[in-house]
Amino acid sequence: MDPVLTQKVCGSTRYPKDCLSSIAPFYTGDTDPVSVLKMEVQAVRQGFATAIAKVKQMKKESDGKWNKGALDTCVDNFNSGLTDLDSALEAITDHNIKTLQTMLSSVLTYVTTCEDAMDEDPDSDALPNVTNMEQKLTNLATNSLDIANQLNWT
């Protein structure tokens, strides 16, 4: 990958290695911050879609072992995250920094809400897959917000 991308854009995020690995499937060759932000938002969106599928599968297989309410909370919040990520992509196109920052911040809140629901579940320790997904989503959403905060849009 382009060294400019490594140093300038992903290097300025809190999780540069996650930034680089997550955008690789979406890499277009463009290294400007707006293009990288679009790629990172696409990576977060893909992460949410994957998380929804995994949580739904876990719910189906749980046989009452886990709190289905907590899993439902995660699915609902991850679906809201997908909607807000679509709005974030629109805000990038419109160069609307306030909406972009709001949508990306909301995405982080959705992950935290899922984490909180799982923490309330006494069997949540048995759900390492959810915890790993939440951490990955948090890292990618944080990186997206870090990149957005570097944009000089008014």
From TrEMBL:
A Pfam family the protein falls into: PMEI
Pectinesterase inhibitor domain sequence ranges: 1-147
Membrane-crossing segments per the record: none
Family the entry assigns: Belongs to the PMEI family.
GO-annotated molecular function: enzyme inhibitor activity
Keyword terms: Signal
Classification via InterPro entries: Invertase/methylesterase_inhib (IPR035513), Pectinesterase_inhib_dom (IPR006501), PME_Inhibitor (IPR051955)
Full protein name: Pectinesterase inhibitor domain-containing protein
Signal recorded as keyword: yes
